[in-house]
Amino acid sequence: MAKQDNLALGQRWLSDTEAELGLGTIVLIETRTVTVLFPATGESRVYASQTAPLTRIKFAVDDTVKSHEGWELVVEHVEEIDGQLIYVGQRTDNQEAAILKETFIDHHFQLNQPEQRLLNGQFDDPKWFDLREQCLTHQFNHSTSPLLGFVGARVDLIPHQLHIASEIGRRHAPRVLLADEVGLGKTIEAALIIHQQLLTERAQRVLIVVPSSLVHQWLVEMLRRVNLAFSVFDAERCEAMAEDACNPFEAEQLIICSLDFLTHNSRYYQQALEAQWDLMVVDEAHHLTWSEGQPSQEYQVIEDLAKVTKGVLLLTATPDQLGHESHFARLRLLDPARFHDYHSFVNEEKQYSQLAQAINPLLSGESLSDEDIEAIAQFADKDMLQGINTASTKQKNKLLHTLLDRHGTGRLLFRNSRAGVKGFPKRQLFSHGLRLPIEYATLLASEPENIQLQLAPERHPDLVNIWTDIDPRVDWFISQLKSLKGKKVLTICANASTALQLSEALRIKAGTRSTVFHEGMSIVDRDRAANYFAQSDDGAQVLICSEIGSEGRNFQFAHHLILFDLPLVPDLLEQRIGRLDRIGQKYDVCIHVPYFDMSAQQVLLDWYHQGLGAFEHTCPTGMTVYEETQELLHECIKDPENTDKCFQLINQTALLHKELKKRLEQGRDKLLELNSSGHGRVEQFLTQISDAEDSPTLELFMTRLFDSLGILQEEHDESCYLLKPTEKMIGPLPGLDEEGMTVTYERPTATLLEHVHFLSWDHPMIQHAMDILTTDVTGKSAVALCQDKSKPAGSYWLECLFVLSAKADKGLQLARFLPPTPIKVCVDANLQLTDKHFTRLDPVLPKMGNQLINALKSQLEKCLEHSHQHAEKSAQAIKSQRIAQMNELLSDELARLEGLQQVNPAIRDDEIEHVAKQIINLEKVMSNAKLHLEAVRFVVNNP
Questions:
Q1: Beta bridge partners of 432
Q2: For the chain, what is the mean pLDDT?
Q3: Among 348, 357, 284, which Cα is nearest to 316's?
């Protein structure tokens, strides 16, 4: 590449002052002027021949040059005919010999090597150098942070959830059962695990299999909680993709589908099997029924998928005490080699049950009996038990953590109960008996066998358009909202049409601000409705939801819940109440239930309240009791005036509920719960997250970066900003549309206002914004003036920003140990290394900058050479340090796993093999890491 060449038609030149024009072609040469056409933009420029601010583009042997048709050529030989260059070499796409005239070089070519841009007079404002350095530094810190995958999740910082997610998310191909009770956040735990597995590149392809009714909930949760956009697969979508004659499951990386879809479509199930998955998540796993010799079809589908998938997460809220054989079946899906015989499993579990009972005194601060110590001795070294009753708290905690590591299913099973987790509100029931209208009574008497009609008479076709005029629940509803003036009220009913009609009646009769939320709305419209409800001043007082309102959304800024009707299934009732009854709810949850006296509605209300206590307490026994009493319950619903039968139902339900609840409490494995809660181990992790979020670094950095990229960030309120693209925007930013978006950097705001985007180091928009800058040529070279009165005028420095990087298979997690690592070197005019920092730099006009560069070109080349030598020394030191850290960390992990495997068969061979191979391969890859120059800045003193 040269500044002075004999001009000829067809030659390719770059503009030193307008690099954005791309590569120009000389189209006209006159006595004193030259005309250059820039095909990339369609513009042309006329320059004086002797002073044209142009740089001739020439490629050398071994350079790669791109043609305007898109293919690339590795140069083997260069010829010149009539002033035009002709490149001879081999194409990279088909390895065929080819010739490329310079006229046909890609019009969008730009100099991208920092030293080439600087020495050829193509430089930018000095601020871009600083921004590039900050982006690379922040990206390095993010990749190596222990908080990776956690700071960006839109969740409250709940200790047990974060502990489970960090414990499981850091494993290679985790295979575990998440069995927390309802309301403790299994979906959030799974989302955090998936998020971390993807960000740390332990997984790339994820399949989520859920009941049909939960597909949308999972889709929304993944996007809202952790910014992961999953694709929903069903028969319609797969049929549409069938024309491509490829496996549709290989077309996307992140997929959600229903279990019914897989069981009812053998062809697509087979394709799902053939696709390679890194992680599979199965919700409601307790519905997978199994017995020796008679597994259900659903169980077999998941079993076959589990066999070909590296990592498996099973989610269930049903404790094993309510079906020990089913519990074994779920563990069998995770590790069939270990859990191959049910009777052996029962015997093994008895030992761990004895251990769990033996450590109870240790947990409550009491002394261990000789029998307790003898039971514990089977799982711990004897020296750890010496003098344990008089040992310090630290020693006792060490013993507990050792037992947790060696606990039988403690590595496979994570379970927290509400009894062991603090922070839940109280629940109060307010039931309101109303007279049954004559119109309803007549219809119900004519169809006693129709259970759905008995519970929701307003759904009858004859009344569907007039029921709001005759149903006393409507007037009661209006009166109730007036009595709760100033309070947010969530209302849930079974059907979307009921919700819509109730909202319309409320508008006409009372004028109360309300909004609806149902499955017929788009996700955007649901977000708007939820936001309108969430607004404290001008928002809706009441949000009226169909059943979908009990899935996926938390409205815990409200604490009044009106159940306009009652679901027949206990789990669904718990889901409804769970929209408000969450950890972090500040007030008692008030549950209002209108019902008709002496009707099916009262039977169901009494069954829930008097039999199960399901309104004022969570009911883990609900589904089991429902299955046992279903026949009698249905009989009472059909004949609500049979008081004897209803009395029998309540008594039978209460006795069964009491017995099952007693068994659950007796069977609680407190050691397992201690392991699942993370108590004593997760507190420091929580502090680190809180400290990171208290820092203003991200907000200050992004304010500057957004401004530089041409994105307007203006204050919306105390905790939110409005982001909008401007005409000066450098390039499209994924996720930011023309209308803009509301964002916050504060977790409390993000968890309260779900329409607001929560920006963190984990957020893809932050990473995309930094990628836009680091992948662009802007800022690769810069020239600046400083004002240092302690140095003579004309003194200069060259700052070089290098990056040390390597390439490896994603499964090795190279970024965990050696992500692209910035190395900054600054040398002065005497080629001496200096730690000079510039607080204020002024940009330089193109003409002056070129004069400075041309005058000091040979010296700058020497500075570049010395800088590279210094950077190489630093790179070698960094490689040695990072390799040593990797070896220490992974060797400790390997030794721990090998030791634990001797006493805990839950440690799989493939986990150990993976870590062993990871150490060997990472050392090789990290040793071969290469250094490249990322950016240069030439600073001249002008005091």
A1: 594
A2: 87
A3: 284
> Which string of b and e fits 491-507 if b means at least 16 CB within 10 Å?
bbbbbbebbebbbebbe
**Alpha helix (H) ranges present in 695-788?**
697-709, 747-752, 764-774
Question: Integer distance in angstroms from the first to the last C-alpha of the chain?
Answer: 34
Identify the pLDDT of residue 231.
Answer: 94
Q: Are 686 and 162 in contact (CB under 8 A)?
A: yes
Cβ atoms of 940 and 785 closer than 8 Å: yes
Please tell me the distance from the alpha carbon of residue 370 to that of residue 739, in angstroms, as a whole number: 71
Sign of the four-CA dihedral 585, 490, 589, 322: negative
pLDDT band at 2 (very low <50, low <70, confident <90, very high): very low
Quick one: pLDDT at residue 408?
54
Can you tell me the distance from the alpha carbon of 796 to that of 940, in angstroms, rounded to the nearest whole number? 4
Reading the block at residue 508, the tokens are 């006409």
Report strand pairing: 711-715 vs 589-596: unpaired
H or E element that contains 488: none
Map out the domains of the chain with their CATH numbers.
Answer: 12-110 (2.30.30.930), 160-360+399-419 (3.40.50.10810), 420-667 (3.40.50.300), 695-760 (3.30.360.80), 781-941 (no CATH)
- Closest to 380 in 3D by CA, of 900, 912, 908, 911: 900
Half-sphere exposure of 934 (CA within 13 A, CB side): 28
Instruction: Return the bridge partners of 91, or none.
Output: 73
- What is the per-residue pLDDT across 29-50, written as a single tens digit (0 to 9) for each? 998 899 999 988 888 999 988 8
Which residue from 337, 276, 333 is spatially nearest to 303, judged by alpha carbons? 333
Residue 404's pLDDT is: 63
Q: Which value, to the nearest 10 degrees, does the dihedral of the CA atoms of residues 20, 21, 23, 29 take?
A: -140
Which residues, 6 or more positions from 160, have their beta carbon under 8 angstroms from its beta carbon?
A: 180, 184, 416, 421, 676, 677, 678, 682
For residue 226, pLDDT beyond 80: yes
Between CA 418 and CA 429, with CA 424 as vertex, the angle to 5 degrees is 100
Residue 429 falls in which region: left (phi positive, over 0), alpha (psi -120 to 50) or beta: beta
Cα 658 from chain centroid (whole Å): 40
Measure the CA–CA gap between 190 and 203, rounded to whole angstroms: 14
